[in-house]
Specification:
The chain has about 120 residues and is an all-beta fold. About 0% of the residues lie in helices and about 50% in strands. It is built from no helices and 11 strands.
Length: about 120
Amino acid sequence: QVQLVESGGGLVQPGGSLRLSCAASGSTLDYYAIGWFRQAPGKEREGVSCISSSDDTTDYADSVKGRFTISRDNAKNTVYLQMNSLKPEDTAVYYCAAEVRLRNCYVDDEYDYWGQGTQVTISS
C-alpha cells in the first residue's frame, strides 16, 4: 500500500511558477499511474494531468496544456507537477493520486490512493 504526500504549494502572482511534489512511501511508485487533481472552493474536483506506469505517457487537461508538465523521478519515488504561467483560475487544493491499473486518467473514482493535498493560490 502506498502513502502519498504533496508539497510545494503556496501563494504566487499571476504568471509565476510552482513545482508540486508527490512523494511516495510504502511502495515503489513506478508500479503506479499517477494523477494530479485540483479542487477549487465551491467546485468539483477535476483532473489536471496524469502519467502512466508503463512508459511514462503523459496527458493534460485542456485548461493546463502547454503550461503544466508532469514527470516522475523513480529514484526519489516522487512525481512532480511543474506549473508555469499560472493564472488566478489555477487556484485550488492540488492532490496527487495513485492507481496500479488505471483506465481513465481523469476519473477520480479510478484511484485508490490519495495524498492530503497542497494549497495553490494565484493572486496579485
